[in-house]
Write a structure and sequence with these properties.
- By secondary structure, this protein is mainly α.
- Helix content is 65%, strand content 0%.
- It has two domains: 1-55, no CATH class; 69-121.
- The chain is globular and about 50 Å long.
- The N and C termini lie far apart (61 Å).
- The relative contact order is 0.05.
């Protein structure tokens, strides 16, 4: 006799297994925090890194189709990601030092709006 496993779904209609998959993390990066501790440990960071790396496949395919050197595309992508992470950490330290953490969401929203306007233009 076959046994059926029932998946429990939350209010969004997603099961825990779907949320913790690489695809689930790509769709919602906050799902990488599997234990909801507001702290990402090594395992959770690895899943997030894999999901974000898969996200870069489109850039690699685009570079290949346009005839760019794949080494330089990958290298420059890594350098820009490193600079962005370093810059983000530096800005976070400034916010903490100046006790501006309450305004961080407003600044993040303004940056996202600026990026959106830049993408449209």
């Amino acid at each position: 006799m076959e046994q059926y496993i029932t998946k429990t779904k939350d209010s969004t209609g997603e099961s825990e297994q779907e949320k913790n998959s690489v695809f689930g993390i790509m769709m919602k990066p906050e799902n990488a925090d599997m234990d909801r501790s507001k702290h990402i440990d090594f395992r959770e960071a690895t899943f997030l890194g894999v999901a974000l790396s898969i996200n870069n496949v489109g850039g690699g395919v685009s570079a290949g189709m346009t005839g760019l050197n794949p080494f330089w595309v990958g290298f420059l992508s890594a350098v820009l990601n490193f600079v962005a992470l370093w810059g983000g950490n530096y800005i976070a330290e400034v916010f903490i030092r100046w006790n501006l953490s309450r305004r961080a969401t407003v600044v993040a929203g303004m940056i996202l709006i600026a990026i959106g306007i830049e993408q449209v233009i």
